[in-house]
Amino acid sequence: MAVDYTVRDGVAVITLDNPPVNGLGHSTRLGIVEGVERARDDASVTAIVITGAGKAFSGGADITEFNTPKATQEPTLHTVIRAVEGSAKPVVAAIHSVAMGGGLELALGAHYRVAAPGAQIALPEVKLGILPGAGGTQRLPRVVGLETALNMIVSGTPVLSEKLAQTALFDRLVEGDLLDEAIRFAKDAGARSGPHPKARERAIEHPNAEGFIQFARNSVAAVAKHFPAPHKCIDAIEAGVKEGFDHGLAFERQCFLALVQTPESRALRHAFFGERAAGKIADVPSNTPVRAIARVGVVGAGTMGGGIAMNFVNAGLPVTLLETSQEALDRGLATIRKNYESQVKKGKLTPAQLDERMALISPTLAYGDLAQADLVIEAVFEELGVKEQVFTKLDEVAKDGAILASNTSTLDIDRIAAFTKRPADVLGMHFFSPANVMKLLEVVRGGKTAKDVLATVMQLAKKIKKTAVVSGVCDGFIGNRMIEQYFRQSLFMVEEGAMPQQIDRAIEAFGFAMGPFRMSDLAGNDISWAIRKRRYAEQPGLHYPRIADRLCETGRFGQKTAAGWYDYQPGERNARPSKFVEDMIVAYSKEQGATRRAISDEEIVGRLVLSLVNEGAKILEEGIASKASDIDMVYLTGYGFPLHRGGPMLYADTIGLYNVERAIRKYAAQQNGDAWKTAARVTGLAAQGKGFNS
Ligand code: 3H9
């Protein structure tokens, strides 16, 4: 049973006990109703306390039950809350740690609420693409006021209990033992004759509710264009304001049932579980002992090294930052300081915090100073010979048991590990630029990387608030290996008939923040040129579109030269279609003897996204990624894949692998079709009627 029932001092105590966060799954819901009825039938009981065991009051509805029969099996959360609210004996919710979603809705159904300070109070349903579906949009505005409630519901952001202490949400904030105090409170309430207060009976007071709701609607329209849930939250609140509690509740239920079926909600739930699943590695149990990391070393104080150092400093870990010249070291430190100063200007950091963070950095020119570091991350020039020098040095100076990591984005971690006498301590930590901002961290597991090294780095990633995804060793790892196919397709399409601006527009309409050509102009076209040159040497037979090389030969490297695939006014980031580039493209096609054709937006999106999917499937086949959701997390957190689509692999599941396979077959029969070789994983799953995530 997921609920415990005891009686203390004439008060029934119903304790939710469904680890990890007391999710309100079917057996928990059943237990609560049974507890309330048992208390009703026990003449010695005068009041009821509901609380949660372990690390939460309740994290809300059990998300794993969504879209399964259990979600709607009675007693539903509505039935539970009706039982609680309708109890003649007063019910007190004793809230600590976390009261979220359905957990908060349950508490709102109680007659009284007492809370410990520091509890996170939230209706975070919107982050899962739904809205509070058990009365939250109706009861919360009645106890904390319309504005606070609307902000909480539309943003899903947790608010600390002490911040809400002055509202009718809490009858008391308890500093001491929460349960003792809740029982005392309940006993007093039980001694008073009813009826006891109900949130549903309170009025929503606001001098200009209609005006405020309209204002909120406009603000949401600007930021939530791909997501229906925030709009529905406002509609549901408005329904209650205008037409009363019962109508609002029925409308909220209707919206909930519709939203839970939407692809956007599926995508957000996939991302929620995908993030947590990424931290689980099949052959590295969660109880694997980890190494202590008290000091970090970073080799290289360039853009990447500096950003990497900031991550650790932000988490309170001291960093030894090494460079080869005083000048480079000073420049690196100045950049870090400038980054922090801009955060101070924005009010995100105090000047004192800036000083504290800078003080955590020990700059050095001597490798010997890395001897105390428990983890050293190398972020130097991307060339194997340079890495060899660094790792040979690190092998000499690092202490026993120190973890040695490379930030390489393309080089072979096993070869790097072989530069040391301790390959088991070596792995890749591939940060994305800007390293202090981007959430993604690809953790590259070498052939000899020790399990505890991997476990340590995955745990550390959490501490520095990264989404860490494990990748095996291959060129480009998960993310860059896939993006190469995407860029390749975008260039083929330019050669075949599309213009960069059409391709960018089509994929941006699909939801990418930036299309491939605007992205290349931002990153610098010379960077991908260098990678292509390497490819030509490594794989001379590979069919690669050469149009981008042509562009680079004219010196159009992108924003930094005020000219790339687009024209730029100096100092501006606005991409303007370029007559020069268009003429160059048309001339190139002619030279190749190719007849340019109109390419539909649908084909553009299909070829770009399915090139990711097909390569992703090969990555799964080869075991480079261990699960499809890992690939999706890489793309959602590192490559701007639209969140409302849930990542390339979930998107493929949404359209169905049968259709993916058919589309690939079609592209393979077209011009430049030799770039398409359907992954066996796609064919295999399609034949079984399955998806990557099923
Ligand atoms: C809802 O309530 C709908 C209602 O309005 C209407 C219904 C009709 N269900 O994050 P952590 C798991 S919608 C199932 O690492 P933390 C999580 O997957 C719900 N599982 O811990 C993980 O499992 P594992 C609204 C859940 O301490 C483990 O718990 N509620 C749920 O850093 C630990 O999670 C939310 O959206 C759940 N509801 O943070 C709350 N919640 O160990 C979402 C967590 O196997 N949850 N799990 O990987 C959170 O924000 C955080 O998990 C929380 C704890 C703050 C609670």
UniProtKB/TrEMBL annotation:
Compartment list: Peroxisome
Coiled-coil regions listed in the entry: none
Keyword Isomerase: yes
GO BP terms: fatty acid beta-oxidation
Domain 3-hydroxyacyl-CoA dehydrogenase NAD binding, first and last residues per copy: 296-471
Pfam families per UniProt: 3HCDH, 3HCDH_N, ECH_1
Keyword Cell membrane in record: no
Molecular function terms from GO: (3S)-3-hydroxyacyl-CoA dehydrogenase (NAD+) activity; enoyl-CoA hydratase activity; isomerase activity; NAD+ binding
3-hydroxyacyl-CoA dehydrogenase C-terminal domain location: 476-568, 604-678
Pathway assigned in UniProt: Lipid metabolism; fatty acid beta-oxidation
Top-rank taxon: Bacteria
Protein name: 3-hydroxyacyl-CoA dehydrogenase
Taxonomic source organism: Caballeronia glathei
